Amino acid sequence: MADDIYVGNANVDALAERGWLLGHFMPDGDARHSTDVEIKWGVHPPGDERAEWVRGERRTALLVLISGRFRVEVPGRSVLLEKQGDYVVWGHGVDHSWIAEEESVVLTVRWPSVPGYKVEEPS
Description:
- Helices cover 3% and strands 36% of the residues.
């Protein structure tokens, strides 16, 4: 039963998987492994931005602003999240990118959790 429970701290645990706390990328048998949903605790310094647009999106996503000022870009629209609790939802087929206009903390939930979207870090 102990393998079905995980207790942690988002600020600490997020460092291991670039912010991701739950999803397909966690080890099998870990309570945080899921192919149904992904959850990210994103802590972003000012000017932090996604290295490239997500194209061919096959997931639905919810991004909630905890603190800061965060912009999500989708084709033909720029969504600014500036008050705690502001959020945006997008679905299948919606390409997107983002930038932290100020130091920001965001909570992202995506479903399902599938591989193929990770941007590799520059060497």
